[in-house]
């Protein structure tokens, strides 16, 4: 077993070669920020601009931000419309205007950007931005449908106040969701077809209108599991207790407060899931009775009577399908392996992920974790890793266990 002192960086776009197309829209100023963010993350960004784009932001801006010349002219430097896309890991076009979408949908090659896309074998992500009527026009919709059919990914434009002063759909998508889509395009889709149910965060058990019982879970591990599985192509339902986290784009989010609400949401969604991960820190107890009035400190006997919450994971363990993979967590402050094994057997899980809640880089609300993966026949301690990296290792293990399970049940060829 090895451990490393420094946590690894979260999965990133470091070293990825991104061909970044900019078109003529006022949202081109946002593209400058995205080029800056990508470059800061270590991506190698080469910017291609349409003639209209140069009316909004100068090539010098993009050259300075990316550290590379921004290309605008098909005839300036030989075969750049072939050489540039050949070197790209992915193409990102933002903002993608109605004009450029039309050019690409019709396979046109009359400027450097459209010719480069035509000559490109790498995945393409389009981020449309335009007036809502232009977006809604059947011509644009038909072009978008054709582009989807070509296999291009589309970052759906958002609703809101547009630069023209109108309200509606057509705003450039937010960078965080575009970054996730881009990471997805650059990640092997080895979880495609998996329906994954994940619980995350704490539960909150109300005592009176002002107070509740809860715990220190931030939800970061469960959200990292959702984000990474989504990138790997899975369909995700995330049942989340109260957290301050932004939900990963593209997941079905079910918000709950109490353990009973979480139990109900899990039982509603578990049947359809091929993998269930209980990363939530479920409160074991709730108030035996909720006080509709605030409990006063002058109360004669300040005693709190508790009732035991159902164990959601153990309930799933009793009713799960044979071909379903059940993963639990064990938050421990001692006897990690023994406790993990005990919970694995008691809750009939396939895998228990044990984490040390006392460690300063493995406990609550930090971005790193060091876990032990316990199955019926293996114990594997992972290095200190980012929570996203830990999540990826858990998914690697889950896919292995699922494949073994299917082999045993004869539902997959050996
Ligand atoms: N869990 C659950 N329902 C509960 C309590 C726990 O589904 N009422 C799940 C957690 O989501 C986790 C696993 O059970 O996947 C272990 O949770 P943990 O809090 O470590 O253990 P407990 O079973 O609650 O036991 P203890 O608190 O005594 O260690």
Q: Overview of this structure, please?
A:
- With 414 residues, the protein is an alpha/beta fold.
- The protein folds into two domains: 169 residues, Flavin prenyltransferase-like (Rossmann fold), CATH 3.40.50.1950; 190 residues, 3-Layer(aba) Sandwich (Rossmann fold).
- The chain is 34% helix and 22% strand.
- The protein has 14 helices and 21 strands.
- The strands form six sheets. It has an eight-stranded mixed β-sheet, sandwiched between helices. The chain has a five-stranded parallel β-sheet with strand order 2-1-3-4-5, with helices on both faces. It has a two-stranded antiparallel sheet with strand order 6-7.
- Helix 13 links the parallel strand 16 and strand 17.
- Helix 1 packs parallel to helix 3, helix 4 packs across helix 6 and helix 10 packs across helix 14.
- The N terminus is likely disordered.
- The structure holds cytidine-5'-triphosphate (CTP).
- Cytidine-5'-triphosphate binds next to helix 12 and strand 16.
Keywords for this entry:
single chain; 414 residues; alpha/beta; Rossmann fold; 2 domains; eight-stranded mixed sheet; five-stranded parallel sheet; 14 helices; binds cytidine-5'-triphosphate
As for the CATH topology of the largest domain, it is Rossmann fold
Q: Number of domains in the coordinates? A: 2
Number of strands: 21
What count of helical segments does DSSP give? 14
N-to-C terminal Cα separation, in Å?
30 Å
Kindly report the spatial arrangement of strands forming the biggest sheet. Answer: 12-11-8-13-16-17-19-20
The 3D shape can be described as: elongated
Largest sheet: 8 strands, mixed
Structural class: alpha/beta
Unreliable stretches: 1-9
């Amino acid at each position: 077993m090895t451990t490393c002192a420094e946590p690894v960086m979260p999965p990133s776009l470091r070293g990825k070669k991104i061909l970044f197309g900019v078109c003529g829209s006022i949202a081109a100023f946002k593209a400058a920020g995205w080029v800056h963010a990508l470059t800061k993350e270590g991506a190698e960004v080469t910017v291609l601009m349409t003639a209209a784009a140069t009316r909004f932001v100068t090539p010098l801006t993009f050259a300075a931000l990316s550290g590379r010349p921004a290309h605008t002219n098909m005839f300036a430097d030989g075969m750049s419309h072939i050489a540039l896309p050949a070197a790209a890991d992915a193409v990102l076009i933002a903002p993608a205007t109605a004009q450029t979408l039309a050019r690409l949908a019709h396979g046109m090659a009359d400027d450097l950007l459209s010719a480069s896309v035509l000559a490109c074998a790498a995945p393409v992500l389009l981020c449309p931005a335009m007036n809502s009527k232009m977006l809604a026009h059947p011509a644009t919709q038909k072009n978008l449908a054709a582009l989807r059919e070509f296999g291009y990914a589309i970052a759906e434009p958002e609703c809101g106040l547009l630069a023209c002063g109108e309200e509606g759909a057509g705003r450039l998508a937010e960078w965080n969701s575009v970054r996730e889509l881009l990471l997805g395009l650059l990640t092997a889709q080895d979880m495609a077809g998996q329906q994954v149910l994940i619980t995350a965060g704490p539960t909150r058990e109300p005592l009176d209108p002002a107070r509740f019982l809860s715990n220190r879970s931030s939800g970061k591990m469960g959200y990292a599991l959702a984000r990474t599985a989504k990138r790997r192509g899975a369909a995700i339902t995330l049942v989340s207790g109260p957290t301050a986290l932004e939900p990963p784009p593209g997941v079905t989010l079910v918000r709950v407060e109490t353990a009973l609400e979480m139990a109900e949401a899990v039982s509603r969604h578990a049947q359809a899931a091929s993998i269930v991960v209980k990363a939530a820190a479920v409160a074991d107890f709730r108030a035996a009775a909720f006080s509709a009035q605030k409990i006063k400190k002058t109360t004669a006997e300040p005693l709190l009577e508790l009732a035991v919450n159902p164990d959601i994971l153990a309930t799933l363990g009793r009713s799960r399908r044979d071909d379903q993979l059940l993963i639990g967590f064990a938050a421990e402050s001692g006897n990690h392996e023994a406790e993990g094994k005990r919970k694995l057997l008691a809750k009939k899980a396939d895998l228990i992920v044990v984490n040390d809640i006392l460690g300063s880089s493995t406990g609550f609300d930090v971005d790193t974790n060091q876990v032990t993966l316990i199955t019926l026949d293996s114990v594997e301690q992972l290095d200190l890793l980012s929570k996203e990296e830990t999540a990826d290792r858990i998914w690697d293990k889950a896919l292995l266990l699922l494949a073994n399970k299917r082999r045993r049940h004869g539902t997959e060829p050996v």
